[in-house]
Design a protein that fits this description.
By secondary structure, the protein is α/β, with parallel strands linked by helices. The protein folds into 2 domains: 171 residues, FAD/NAD(P)-binding domain; 153 residues, FAD/NAD(P)-binding domain (3-Layer(bba) Sandwich), CATH 3.50.50.60. 26% of the residues lie in helices and 29% in strands. The strands form 5 sheets. It has a 7-stranded mixed beta sheet with strand order 11-17-12-13-14-15-16. Strand 15 and strand 16 form a beta hairpin. Helix 1 runs parallel beside helix 8 and helix 5 packs parallel to helix 6. It is elongated and about 65 Å long. The structure holds flavin-adenine dinucleotide and iron/sulfur cluster. The site of iron/sulfur cluster (SF4) has 13 residues, from strand 12 and helix 5.
Length: 335
């Protein structure tokens, strides 16, 4: 049976590794962090069903306990090259690894909110990102800039997505429902805190997303404002003042909030960008490109190099896992 190297131990890489190992393949999985699933363990509860992110991470990590899987943690793959019909990888310590096949599962990275200076991230303490908010929810420590319970929290959609200035014209697909999920969690922990979501338009496309949106209004009193925040500034008492336009009413609007949560989009991770470029399969916005989005979405233009998960585009965990299963089936059918 052939050997395969999988780059990235997120949900995509792990699910594919488990299936390939169960079918007798010799699997090596490489992860740059100290432990797998760093983009899951930094979250609290998961849409659509508020499952505990750590429970899911535990279930996935269990799948790596196969004698046919060799884990290489704290190992960043920095280059890949052809080696006859197979592949050679090199890590950040200069060590090389060879295998017959290669699966890219290097995932995404959140948009860096520093790039939207006008929104004041890292300038005003009350401005945080959706990742910061995930951690505050997880640690049951949703606090304003002076360590007190916030009276009001404003969520701002489309930060670094659908945005000319940051160069990302695409929709990140998950931040609308993530804001609704976080606003519900906020109201569960702090029922007296006001929650506002500023949106351009709401994209509740997935199963149960629309129901979550309704629930957030009917059961938790979350308020939705159609409008874009153009600027944030600090106030003398550590709060954040926002300037926006309510585009339904056609009126300019000023509001003060204790926390402004920037719903950052999903970009191709550095690993995805660099390795896809090196392999000559880099698509739009640095994501890896499959040869056909309908019929061959796990194949790349390079023979023996397969793709799965958010290294291709933003996806939910459910879609990522389904895509990893599809990649494993494709690999087994060709190996
Ligand atoms: C704020 C936020 C909240 C979210 N909440 C939810 C939710 O509630 N429900 C839901 O379904 N989805 C949610 N998501 C999306 C979810 O995080 C992704 O669907 C999922 O993590 C994608 O898995 P993946 O394996 O494709 O990529 P990743 O999870 O990004 O895994 C890729 C792995 O590859 C590693 N890697 C990258 N480059 C290299 C390299 N060169 N060498 C070695 N290793 C490398 C990374 O360290 C990482 O561990 C959320 C996303 C965000 C931003
Ligand atoms: S999912 Fe919503 S918040 Fe995210 S980019 Fe798309 S429209 Fe904007």
């Amino acid at each position: 049976m052939k050997s395969i190297s999988i780059i990235g131990a997120g949900p995509a890489g792990i699910e594919a590794a488990a299936i390939l190992a169960a079918h007798g393949m010799s699997v090596s999985i490489f992860e740059k962090s100290e432990s797998p699933l760093s983009n899951i363990t930094d979250k609290a509860f998961l849409f659509p069903n508020f499952a505990d992110a750590n429970d899911l991470a535990h279930k996935l990590a269990e799948k790596l306990k196969s004698p046919s899987i060799t884990q290489h943690l704290s190992t960043e793959i920095v280059s890949l090259s052809r080696n006859g019909k197979g592949w050679t990888l090199k890590d950040n310590k200069g060590q090389s690894y060879s295998s017959d096949l290669l699966l890219l599962a290097t995932g995404y990275t959140p948009f860096d909110a520093h790039r939207k200076e006008e929104l004041g991230y890292d300038i005003y303490k009350g401005v945080v990102t959706s990742l910061d908010m995930e951690r505050m929810i997880r640690d049951k420590a949703i606090l304003n800039s002076i360590g007190e319970k916030p009276r009001r929290v404003v969520f701002l959609q489309c930060v670094g997505s659908r945005d000319e200035k940051s160069g990302n014209h695409y929709c990140s697909k998950l931040c609308c429902v993530t804001a609704v999920k976080q606003a519900i969690e906020l109201k569960k922990q702090l029922p007296d805190t006001e929650a506002y979501i500023f949106y351009m338009d709401l994209r509740m496309w997935g199963q149960h997303f629309e129901e979550l949106y309704r629930e957030s209004q009917q059961d938790y009193g979350v308020r939705f404002v159609r409008g874009r925040i153009s600027e944030a500034s600090g106030t003398f008492d550590g709060r954040v003042q926002i300037k926006a336009e309510d585009t339904l009413m056609g009126l300019p609007l000023k509001m003060t909030t204790d926390l402004l949560v920037l719903m950052v989009g999903m970009e191709a991770s550095v690993g995805t960008r660099c390795l896809a470029k090196e392999a000559g399969i880099c698509g739009e916005y640095g994501f890896a490109q499959s040869i056909d989005p309908h019929m061959d979405d796990n194949l790349s233009a390079q023979e023996g190099l397969f793709l799965c998960g958010t290294c291709k585009r933003p996806m939910t965990i459910a879609d990522t896992i389904a895509d990893a299963r599809s990649a494993a089936t494709t690999i087994l059918s060709l190996a």
